[in-house]
Structures are given as C-alpha cells and as structure tokens.
Design goal:
The complex is a heterodimer. Chain A is 38% helix and 16% strand. By secondary structure, chain A is α+β, with helices and mostly antiparallel strands. The longest helix of chain A is centred in the last third of the chain and has 21 residues. The radius of gyration of chain B is 21 Å and the shape is elongated. In chain B, 51% of the residues lie in helices and 0% in strands. Chain B is mainly α. Chain B has a domain of 28 residues. Chain B is built from 2 helices and no strands. Classes of the chains: A alpha+beta, B mainly alpha.
Chain lengths: 461, 73
C-alpha cells in the first residue's frame, strides 16, 4: 500500500494514469469494505469522468497540482450533486438528491481529485464511535472488533484501510481528531472559520468545522491548500484570503515554543495516551508543562451548546419521528432540546472569556501537545471505559480531550502514534496552534513524520 | 436536584415543546439531562461579570492575511 504522496508522484511522472489510480482504489474498496463498512455511497461513474478529464489534461501538457488523479471520499454530510445527503440518518433518505456539490467538494474537483463516494458517520454527527444503526457500525481496520471513532468514522477507516489516501470529515467536538486517533491516520481540524461549510449538513452552527484526513502530512497540506477560499455565503467563514502551507512544511520547528498540556489533559489520559505525547514531545524538544485555562469548563460549555443547538435543529423531527432516529443518540438529542436557556446562554457568555484567556496563552507558546483521545479504540458496543480508575460513560467521554480545543477554535493536527501495551492500536497526538496558524501545526507534524515517530501503518484485511 | 425533579422537568418541558415521550424514554432522557446538569453546575460557577456578553458569530481571533513564518518570542 503506497501513500498519497507516493501516488501523487507516480501520477506526476506518468507512471500511473488517473484511471489506474482510480482502479486501484476501487479494487481496494471492493476487497475490504464488506468488513470495514466505511462507504455508504459510491459515485464511480463520476470518478471515471473526473479521471478521464485529468488524464486528458495531462496528455495536453497542462500543469496539474499534486491532487490531480488522487481518489478521495467524503463523510456523507457533504453534498454530492445527484446524491442524497443523508448525514448518517434514516430520515434524510427521504430528501431529494443534492443539486450541487458542497463548496469543499468543488474545490477538490477543481484540484483534480477523484470523488469515489460518501462515508459512514454517526447520525447527524452526534457521536464519537460511528456505531450507526442504519448503515451498520464502521469497523476499525486495525482491529475489526473495535470502533473507528466518530463522528467521521468512515473518513478515518477508509484512509486506514488504504481505500483512499484522502477523505473529508467534520469536527464539532473531535469528529476528525477522534477517528484519526483510533484509526492511526493524519487529521486536520482547521481554525474555526477557515474553511467554508456551505453545502454540508450542520450539527452545531456555533462550533462546526470541516477538514481533511490523510495518510501522510503532505496529503493534509495539499488538500488544505486546495480547500481554502473565502465564502461570503457561510456566515461562519471568517478567512478572507488563502494562506497556503505546502511550501512551509520543510521549515521545521526550530525557534518555535512548544509545550505539553498538563493538568486536565494529563488527568484524563491513560498510560498509552501519555506515552504518545511524551514521544512526540521528545522529538519536538518540548520539555515544559503548560496549563490550558479552564479546560473542564470549556468542555462543559461545548457539551451544553452542542446538545442545545443539535437538539433544537431536529426538534420538529423529534416531535413526530423520534423512532426513526439513531437509538444511541435520540435520547441525547431530546435532552439537549430540553436544556434550560440559562445553561446555553451561560456557555456562550463563557466562550468569549475562554477565547481571551487562551489567546493570551498563545502569546507565550506556538505549539501545544495533548493526547487526542484518553484511550485507544474501544470494542464496538462498549458502554463504559476506565480512565485512570474512574469509570466513565464511553461514548461521550471519548471527546474529553478534544472538546476544550475545538470549543476555542484552534487549528489542530492529529498525528498517528503507536504506543506500547495497546495490542497494536494507535492513539493520536493533538498538535495545537494559535488561531490561523495551521502552518505551525503542520510544520511540527512534518517533523514527527520525518522522524518516523508519527506515521500510518498498513493493515492486512 | 433530585432525580425525580429532573424527570418532572423533562415531562413538563417536553409537554411545553410538544414532544411526546413515553415513560421509558422520559427516564432515559432524564438520565442524560441529569448528567448535563452536573456540567452546567460547573459552568454556573464560572466567574462572569454582568458585562461578559455572549459570543457573537464566533471568531477565535481576527483573521490576519499577513501571518506567516516563525513567530518571535
């Protein structure tokens, strides 16, 4: 199994055509997806057309970017023209097909990438495990008895299984970083407001982010560059200019102030999670322990806002079609819809204060490291996990370490590391930078990849 | 707050919102809400002044198109 960087190089040298690359991807999906269950929809005719267009352009001698001819897939909350956007739900299956691609899909199409299909997810993105009762659970390619993480579980699993080297996911409370951690792949949750969300199905307007997962750092950077662009139609898209990072990857981390998050982030980390952070810190020369202000409060506020906005968004259907919802999350949606307004307003008021405190922290630090998940991937169906002797409900607790960071809106790269004592399962490290400094997080990621500490691993399926 | 109070709240607020709940679902929803109440309790203790306004359409920091390179300590 080669990674996206290798594939891109082969395409550029014409050792492979886009049609060849697509055929390899389709064959791998066909050989593995009955066990992984990453894909919910395929659009192979479209992918063929896109591949032919890339091959024709290359034959004409046109200059093509690094994603030209690279197959990819998207979480099934992205609009794909002609396909119904189900967002992991049964209810949405009754909606008409999307009339146009989501903006990020348009960007990848313009970059020459080949869309092969849509991917499994937690219903309406409310979950961390992709135990989807409608489409079946997504299985972790490194151990098929375990969850792939969520809510972008199919996005993580498809990359880990070698089906595609690039996927798109969404991240409100950890939904890119958790599957990256559990599946051992690279993930990028950009700054809140960096990428357009137009044409994606929302979960929590106040916190929703979109971003890529890939099998190498270069894949993250190339796709991130292609995905950027202002969007006046998305009120949450704050970036008004493109800031490419691919040319920055080789700059290393010399001169950057890098610390390790202690306190809350250490207390909620199992021994293997601490081990991977220590390994990353050693390579990056990070010795100091740093306190992230009010992490527990940030997590609480993210939890309350998510439940409230998510519940409100689906209130009409909860009134009349509750039995058609995902059984694992419908009661949480209802509970969210019933939350007192005082809780929600307090959380939004707290958010402004929280932002100021953490922006102040980044006056002293450039990169902060923390585990992406407290534990490696649990078995499918797990109800409770133990974190340092404390019994906690599994599904909501998986996001303990990601929620405080996405609530702030910082950019984060999730780097795949492989601790001891987990039976070969990975745990991700969050490489966290100040708002709008994706470049710094990706530079640190490149250092970890070059050192061989963080990387994807091939799987036998 | 007692569990029975949460259950009563769930039933009353669901009725206000026109959300039909059978007894089993009301119990499960109450369990979730009771867990969230613990988080809300933490948050209610946050030191906010009367001047701390809610976040607007959230923006983590002003976008600066000039950012690049290695920051200076």
């Amino acid at each position: 199994m080669s990674n996206l960087a290798t594939l891109s190089s082969q395409l550029a040298r014409r050792e492979l055509s886009a049609r060849d690359a697509l055929a390899l991807s389709i064959a791998r999906i066909g050989a593995t997806d009955a066990r992984v269950n990453a894909f919910t929809d395929c659009c192979l005719d479209r992918a063929m057309r896109e591949a032919d267009a890339v091959d024709a352009a290359r034959a004409r001698g046109e200059a093509l970017g690094p994603l030209a001819g690279v197959p990819y897939a998207v979480k099934n909350l992205f609009d794909i023209q002609g396909v119904t956007t189900r967002a992991g739900s049964r209810i949405n299956r009754g909606l008409p097909p999307a009339g146009a691609d989501a903006v990020l899909v348009q960007h990848l199409r313009a970059a020459g990438a080949l869309l092969v299909g849509a991917l499994n997810m937690d219903e309406y993105a409310y979950g961390f495990t992709t135990e989807n009762s409608h489409d079946g659970p997504c299985h972790n390619p490194h151990d098929l008895t375990r969850v792939a993480g969520g809510s972008s579980g199919g996005s993580g699993a498809a990359v880990a299984a070698g089906q595609v080297g690039l996927t798109l996911g969404s991240d409100t409370n950890g939904s890119i970083r958790v599957p990256s951690s559990f599946c051992g792949v690279w993930g990028l949750k950009p700054t809140f407001g960096r990428l357009s969300r137009s044409g994606s199905y929302p979960f929590v307007h106040s916190i929703d982010h979109l971003g890529p997962l890939a099998d190498c750092v270069e894949g993250l950077a190339w796709s991130y560059d292609a995905l950027q662009g202002p969007d006046p139609l998305d009120p949450g898209c704050h970036a008004t200019a493109v800031q490419p990072v691919s040319g920055e990857l080789a700059r290393g981390t010399h001169g950057l102030r890098i610390g390790v998050l202690g306190g809350y982030f250490d207390e909620h980390a199992s021994a293997p999670a601490r081990e991977v952070v220590a390994a990353a810190a050693q390579v990056l020369g990070a010795a100091a322990t740093v306190e992230w202000p009010d992490a527990a409060l940030g997590r609480a506020a993210a939890f309350i806002i998510s439940a409230s906005e998510g519940g409100q968004l689906h209130l009409d259907d909860l009134r009349t079609r509750a039995d058609e919802f995902e059984p694992l999350s419908v009661d949480r949606f209802i509970a969210g819809a019933l939350q007192p307004a005082a809780w929600y307003v307090q959380a939004q008021r707290f958010r402004r204060l929280y932002r100021d405190r953490i922006n102040a922290l980044f006056h002293h630090w450039d990169i902060l490291l923390a585990p992406a998940t407290p534990v490696p991937a649990p078995e499918i169906g797990t109800e409770w996990i133990d974190i340092n002797g404390v019994r906690m409900p599994c599904r909501p607790s998986i996001g303990l370490l990601t929620q405080p960071v996405s609530f702030m809106g910082c950019p984060v790269v999730a780097a795949p590391l492989w601790p001891s004592g987990t039976g070969g399962l990975p745990i991700g490290v969050q490489i966290i930078a100040a708002p709008w400094r994706e470049d710094l997080a990706l530079r640190a990621a490149q250092v970890l990849q070059d050192a061989g500490v963080a990387r994807t691993r091939p799987v036998e399926l | 707050m007692e569990s029975r109070d949460v259950l009563a709240y769930v039933k009353a607020s669901a009725a206000v919102l026109g959300l039909p709940l059978d007894e089993d679902r009301a119990l499960r929803v109450a369990q979730h809400l009771e867990r969230t109440a613990g988080l809300a309790g933490l948050l209610q203790a946050a030191a906010l002044t009367v001047h701390d306004e809610p976040a607007e359409i959230y923006r983590p920091a002003p976008f600066d198109g000039a950012l690049s390179g290695t920051p200076q300590a």
